[in-house]
Amino acid sequence: MPGLGTTYGRGGATTAPSDVVNSDVILIMGSNMAENHPVGFQWVIEAKEKHGAHLIHVDPRFSRTSAVANTWVSLRAGSDILFLGGLINYILQNNLDFREYVVHYTNASVIIPETFKDSEDLGGLFSGWDPQEKQYDNTSWLYQGVKADEGSSDHHDNAQSGGHSQHGIDSSTDLSTYEQDLTLQHPRCVYQIMKRHFARYTPEMVERYCGVSKEAFLNVAKIYTSASGPDKTGAICYALGWTQHSSGVQMIRCAAMIQLLLGNMGRPGGGILALRGHASIQGSTDIPTLFDSLPGYLSMPKFGYSSKDLASFIKANKPRTGFWNNFDKYIISMLKAFYGDSATKENDYGFNWLPRVTGDHSHQAYWLDMMDGKMDGLFVIGQNPAVAGPNSGMERRALGKLKWLVVREMVETETATFWRDSPEVQSGELKPALLGTEVFLMPAAGHVEKDGTFTNTQRLLQWREKAIDPPGDARSENWFIYHLWERIIVKAKLDPRPRNQGLLALRMDYTIKGERREPEAEEILQEINGWTVADHKQLTTFAELKADGTTACGCWIYCGVYPESGRNRGNERDPKDEYGHGWGWAWPLDRRVIYNRASAKPDGTPWSERKKLVWWDEAAKKWTGKDVPDFTATKPPTYVPPPGAEGDAALAGDKPYILHADGMGWLWVPVGLNDGPLPTHYEPLESPIRNPMYSTQQVNPAGLNRARPGNEYAKSPDARFPYVLTTYRLTEHHTAGGMSRTLSHLAELQPELFCEISMELAAQLKITHGEWVTLVTARGAIEAHALSTSRMKPLTIDGKTVYQVGLPFHWGYNGLVKGDIGNDLIAISEEPNVRIMETKGLLCNVLVGRREDNAAKLKEYHSIMEGQTA
Amino acid sequence: MTRKAAFLTDATICIGCKACEVACKEWNEVPEDGLVWSGFSYDNTQALGASTWRHVMFLEQPATAGPQQVDMEDPFRWIFLSDVCKHCANSGCLEACPTGAIVRTNVGSVLVQSDVCNGCGYCVVSCPFGVVDKRHPDGRAFKCTFCYDRQSAGMIPACAKACPTQSIRFGELDELRKEADVRVAELQRRGYTDAQVYDPLQTSVGGTHAMFVILGQPEAYNLPPAPEVPTIYLKSAWTSALVSALVLAAIVCAAFLF
Question: pLDDT tens-digit profile of B197-237?
Fold first, then answer.
């Protein structure tokens, strides 16, 4: 999310899959869209077949997406920034940027102070690096003329506390005052800094270290950059193939920058599709399941000075200019939704009932805490970490250190039965009789058995109605949380400690329906939408939110989904136009292509007839077009903010990126990222080569590898682990398999675990197609069938042959089809911004035969690894 | 026959997602067909049968034609095609069925009525495409019903409904036949010089209600280039039987005479 969030202002996909039919070129990279998003992929096929769009797929494997692509290029897993940096360099060196767009709508012209030193000059570190704390002070990344206001901000805490709600807000720095050179000639303007920064990302470097021939790279560069200018657009689609890297956010940043340089953002057929892997993953970040974020991407307060009271928190989060100037309205309305009448001006609307983030409590970090015995209990809802978690073997062992574990699931997942039949139990390491963990399996309703919404990839809320009652004791999440609250509250009432005040203040007055006592889901959506406190009137837009406690709104970006009593826009099914208005409701305010002010020239007229979307209607004095304008509707393109203006009024009429304090798209990220204002290439935590860009900086300096016994790493390179391993999903299964390995219609389509290797590697290791092999990493060993195929291509990296091994990860020890657990091979590690693990590029070895055939060798591996960390 | 319904399945836009297989099984309550990993690319279904009525093939092969740019030394392509019962104009299974369990429906499809089938298996050997098969343990024959129940209710077959890329089209036979030709012409224009329609009109099958747009030769897709209905051999078979009988009779008679 911070990749897109810092560049554009919001972390969501900027467009809808259906909009790619308007693309001239589609680049899919870091994603296997045809396999993992086959329904959305229909629009890619339509763009190709009906409009002759060119589809480029760049991926280590030739997948089902590559099969229907016009162009497929293989690359070494984890070398993406080299490749994308190569594209940026190609654009800059050949002056292929969409200059008018770049000058007016991005911060390319902004001058950066002399104190900034580039990673190219400091051996791989940007200026501001603190080697003790292992984090950056971003003061030197700020625009020239901007002063950081010391003391009012805890932004230095970000490195420890996560950055999921990072969209480049930091009230301590007023980014509305900057110096510019609109000719882009000033040596310290962003454009020139970028030009120098990416100068070494040449086609030769790409060929040598990505394993993509110069010709193939230049072909991709030529085709993709052709999708630029007034009359053409290109779209980029990515998924976890970028996210799950130790520099994943910066890979996404590269793509975001390319789209700005080519003027492809906010325009039909442009944008970036951040493809989400489940029905409501976008929803789970909008109304987050993340430790460091509140609904609507408000920061979770962190323990410290800036969160001591509401006024300090608002001061730290409310910039003077841009849309986030409304921060106080959003947070106070959210608190009113949480706590109702208990939230008063006198008690800071209950702000101090919110917990404070005290450190890194991401999945990876709390699992290590669990391993160290620091956690008593855990609720696992909609997740199967015993199979899906990185270093799953370690995570299963950690589960055994809990006092209690609650699993809410439709089926009995591996997480629920780790104490009974995990590999650790089979090997005798965990003994059920001695385990102290009390495990509760609570049956959960499926999605057709409960009311609610999905928020999908394109930020679209779609309501679904319950078709049937869930069977037996299975219940919805709403039911579970509500009834859990009912039980806890009884105890809390008997315990007057201050920590229970927030719990007691929660407003939970939903209508409770039927014999099963199910809370009314539509009332929850009404609360999320928001209402006026006095007369309980539904709000129609977040512009109506107030900072005085007179409005309540659960999630400001969802305001408008339930604009009047009885009108659930998520449940509307009458599409009126090509953008689907009338079918469901997209946040914000049903804008389907965000930043769409950029689809018009600075003067408000469309860039071209072919690519018109939103434009200024001079006669009517308002923005109009095919989409809801993502801009103040009556603000003319000629608007110049008066001195001292604040908020949205401080942004000129030609500034489309309204969430940013300067209204511009950020090629350069002055605030919000923990690993640099520009992307730069670091190798994955495990790599077959040394970093060719920086001899002294092998990996992302701000990332955490979390090395410890049981979570060891190979060296880079490492003769014991000579091959690159990359994991992925198959169409036929759903992630950790709980919803597919249990159904015969799906299980039979991919019944057993396999790994994909090239014909050449199979020949070299004398592996017969289909036979068992054992894959070993520094964390573990699993067995799989060897599928040797031409679709895996050996690459020549720096003169040496590098073989890549592909591994789907859907199997486990429950269900109709069973198999070893791919994630046993993955390390627990943390990307510095979103704290995600690296699964897409690591090192492994391939041994012929099953695990038991290799017992002696595996024992040797195990003892070497133990010795390495001891 | 009130209408002639048909499938047109296009390998050039299939993404191999197998939604057709799953939708077919869901709607028709077709049981599991073996949890066996085949090693044949991503094809663990392997063949049509009594418990598999749609089968997506995965062909990893050298590219013989086409403009696709694949970053490999040798030209390569991965083709997917969803196979199905052909619902032949002259249907081997129907002609072989002694019980009348197999009938021609009013949409032109061939339907096995499982409540009439006695499991004799004559249809199995009479299908030139190897589609219909006996299901264990009771031995009755099953195959694609063309979702006759859905069609009767005004809906299109489940596989076509589920296909995300419209690789499986459902419609009127004559129209789809024309569209198949247009599609192949377009593919040829783009450089797929080996594109063709598979619709064996010139053989005794007399054309099918399930046509395919394919790249390369039909044999690669397990589609016979010249399928024949076994009953075309009836006349010659009966003639030879008659001749044999007469010759035998003559020999027997001759034995008495001489």
Answer: 999 999 999 999 999 999 999 999 999 999 999 888 888 98
Domain boundary at A249, A281, A313, which? A281
**What is the per-residue pLDDT across B171-206, written as a single tens digit (0 to 9) for each?**
999 999 999 999 999 999 999 999 999 999 999 999
Range of the structural domain that residue A258 is part of: 2-281
Whole-number Å distance between alpha carbons of A309 and A307: 5
Whole-structure pTM value: 0.96
A54 at interface of B, judged by CB pairs closer than 8 A: no
Verify whether the Cβ–Cβ distance B164 to A39 is below 8 Å. yes
Does the pLDDT of residue A174 top 70, yes or no?
yes
**A464 belongs to a structural domain:** no
Phi, psi dihedrals of residue B57, rounded to the nearest 5°? -90, 150
CA A117 to CA A129: how far, in whole Å? Answer: 11
Indicate the burial class of B226 (C-beta count within 10 angstroms; 0-12, 13-18, 19 or more): exposed
A866 pLDDT tier (thresholds 50, 70, 90): confident
**Cα A238 to Cα A401: distance, rounded to the nearest angstrom:** 37
Residue A431 — φ and ψ, nearest 5°?
Answer: -115, 115
Q: From B71, which residue of chain A is nearest by alpha-carbon distance?
A: A73
A74 Cβ under 8 Å from any chain B Cβ: yes
What's the number of domains chain A is made of?
Answer: 2
Which residues of chain B lie closer than 8 angstroms to A219, CB-CB?
69
CA dist B33 and B55 (Å) reads 11
Q: Residue range A199-221: average pLDDT?
A: 98
Closest residue by Cα to residue A273 from A230, A319, A235: A235
Cα distances (Å, whole numbers) of residue A425 to A411, A428, A432: 20, 5, 7
Question: Does A347 reach chain B within 8 Å, measured CB to CB?
Answer: no
What's the token pair of residue A261?
A: 């340089």
Cα separation, A339 vs A329, in Å, equals 15
Only one residue has tokens 């195959």, namely B143
Instruction: Provide the 8-state DSSP code for A161.
Output: H
Identify whether the C-beta of residue A786 lies closer than 8 Å to the C-beta of residue A859.
no
**A528 falls within a domain:** no
Tokens of residue A659, six digits: 């969430």
Q: CATH code at A746? A: 2.40.40.20
Q: How many CB atoms lie within 10 A of CB B242?
A: 10
Tell me, yes or no, whether A763 lies in a domain: yes
The CATH number of the domain holding residue A214 is: 3.40.228.10
Q: Give, in degrees to the nearest 5, the angle at Cα B139 between B134 and B141.
A: 40
- In sequence order, the 6+-apart residues with CB closer than 8 A to the CB of A465 are A451, A571
Residue A292 lies in a domain: no
Q: Give the Cα separation of A155 and A137 in Å (integer).
A: 9
Residue A365: strand, helix, or coil: helix
Complex confidence, ipTM? 0.94
| Cross-chain residue pair B71–A770, CB shorter than 8 Å | no
Q: What are phi and psi of A629, to 5 degrees?
A: -60, 135
